[in-house]
Amino acid sequence: EKPDYSFLADLAAFWTEGRGGRTDYAQAAHCYEQLLALQPESELGVYPLAVIYRDGSAGYCDVQRAIQLFLRAEAYEEVAAMFTTGVTGPDGQVCLASNEIVAGAFRTWAHTPGDPEAGRMLGDLFRDDNIVTANANLAAACYWGARENPYCADQLAALVEAGLVTDAALMEEISGTAE
Fold first, then answer.
1. Which of 29, 31, 32, 117 is least surrounded, with the fewest CB atoms within 10 Å of its CB?
2. CB neighbours of residue 58 within 10 Å
């Protein structure tokens, strides 16, 4: 039996809600990341951690990680909103420029999960370093969502075979269907 690390989500909530008298989003992010590292299959904290990274509440903005977590939480509208308005960090720097084409693809995916054309476009976007820095985990998550499309299935297989997919929860999900 696996140990239960859900107390880390409670501790993160303690920090985000300021129950101890002060809020500390950096501590909350650390607790959520610890939870996901120790218990990769856990869904606890995925969405709130994405919000912390998107909003820059921990003192810095990490749009790649926010997108990865929103995809895991199937919060495609959140990602669409990020690309609709763009994301500015707490220091005023642009972390993600707006792009209505990408936002539209995510909105399509939100309403038609696994849409093969949206999955292909988004997977290629994240694989090829077009608008955001290339990220094999984000590309794999998009290809995974549209894996019924033979192109997407082939691209996903290539990323996995090359050892480029490092997201433990995603790999567990992919491996679980291969058996």
1. 117
2. 18
First CA to last CA distance, the chain:
21
CA-to-CA distance for 51 and 86, rounded, in angstroms? 14
| Residues contacting 38, CB < 8 A, separation 6+ | 3, 5, 8
Interval 5-48: pLDDT, tens? 889 999 999 999 988 788 999 999 999 999 998 888 888 889 99
Q: According to DSSP H, which parts of 2-97 are helical? A: 7-17, 25-38, 46-55, 63-72, 76-85
pLDDT in tens, 87-125: 999 999 998 889 888 899 889 888 887 788 888 888 888
